[in-house]
Amino acid sequence: MSFVSYFPGRGTVRETAYLEGKAEGEARSILSVLEVRGIPVPDSVRERITSCTDLHRMDAWLDRSRTVERAEDLFAEDGDADKPIS
Length: 86
Hints:
The protein has 86 residues and is an all-alpha fold. The protein contains three helices and no strands. α1 packs parallel to α3.
């Protein structure tokens, strides 16, 4: 899936910083939902969430964070929930 940006200055350092900021905000939201729900987040899961830059994937994880029983289950629809997170 490709990402189409209508950000002024597309392809610039400013756009990159903007998108990185959006990804950081998404990661904080996902982790916050899990924390409020009392779901423990292993370091490997935290790392995977905070290092992701795919906003579409992170939106899916945010949706799943509202219903999963374990933090690892966020990745179930990605087809690799049972794979070790490195």
